[in-house]
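Before a colleague's protein record goes any further, I have to sign it off. My question to you is simply how this chain folds and whether the tokens agree. I do not need a full report, just your reasoning and any doubts. This is what I was given:
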Amino acid sequence: MVDVLVIGGGNAALCAALMAREAGASVLLLESAPREWRGGNSQHTRNLRCMHDAPQDVLVDAYPEEEFWQDLLKVTGGITNEHLARLTIRASSSCRPWMRKHGVRFQPPLSGALHVARTNAFFMGGGKALVNAYYRSAEALGVDIRYETPVDSLELDGSHFIAARTGRQRFEVRACVLAAGGFESNREWLREAWGQNERGEWPADNFLIRGTRFNQGVLIKHMADAGADLIGDPSQSHCVAIDARAPLYDGGICTRIDCVSLGVVVNRDAERFYDEGEDFWPKRYAIWGRLVAHQPGQIGYSIIDSKAIGRFMPPVFPGEKADTLPELARKLGLPEARFMETLTRYNDSCRDGTFDHTALDDCHTEGLEPPKTHWARRIEAPPFYGYALRPGITFTYLGLKTNDRAQVHFGGNASENLFVAGEMMAGNVLGKGYTAGVGMSIGTAFGRIAGTQAARAALKTTEATRAAV
């Protein structure tokens, strides 16, 4: 009998499998995707948010625990478990040597408008390279990996895990780690979670999925039916405003539109609806998907002029380009008169300051609702550009309640041999909102904890069995 079963194939699952194997347990990993699509949403990631008290290898300056915590507190609006959040934060400071041991490489710190050289460590080759490195290491250590093996149900005796089933196959093991992702690819569940709005629209029908098509939330539903304690709002997710022309699935990072803070964003009625300059982009980019989701038709338009070019990561697809603002409105299909009224009102409210996109500068609007707090400059220098935006769901936050040992809970009682990591428990830390790289911090921290604890539980069972014999 195998000691530890890991269900899932992304960062959290791989961290769990590697840690369990290092602890001496035999490990079986079941990935629902084919080999070429392995890795879940982790294949689309780029970086890990890391606490550090002084400059460290690829990280500059310092990013202490309290600042990380305050950043997380701000984006979640306080909807977070502080104990588990601080556990994640502290774990992020010491995980990189272990990651390197398993083949992950980091690139030199980035400069420019992303503002993350101090806070985030970037993977050389991105998430796909990280996932491939972990799979190579897992194979070398003897982890048994099965692809195209989606688990559809678990056998439980109360809170005790017995076996997993995938079709007619049954896998009986001593301990299990659930790391199979959220339900972002399940359109019907998204429709149920978001419901119908006051305009009679079903917002979820217009959502694009930035990540994998294989995260259907099957095990979250199964565990809920089995009496596991859930946490999180099903409508909350890592939701980014992405290029409306992005593919339905697996668009990843490259579909993001990063010029929002350098211009204005309007809805299909050519009206602004939020402060584009509220804070640095990595701390605010993930609120824009939800903002756009609440607009008519679930669409928005990011508008900039030539002054913004070169100050943000260029999108994969070129935007609409025009020599005049009225022409841009026509190309985007926006009501021209209202568009010009909105842009004129915005331009007239801009107050000159010292523009600095690397700082919270003093360029702001006055007498305008919503205001633009920073980086407010008149949109007046042709050519002008416009990018259509849709909500892009990365992962959902509804998941399983857990503790600092990554145990699944049933009626408040912790299972002794069933553990959870990654997106399936991220809602314990992320009640809402997001800040760049924290998903990988959560997955890495709890993947490693879950793997260690699962191995301990399995080996304890083995020892008890031997003693009985």
The domain at 238-392 is CATH 3.90.700.10 (Flavocytochrome C3; Chain A, domain 1). The chain has two domains: 2-182+217-236+397-468, 238-392.
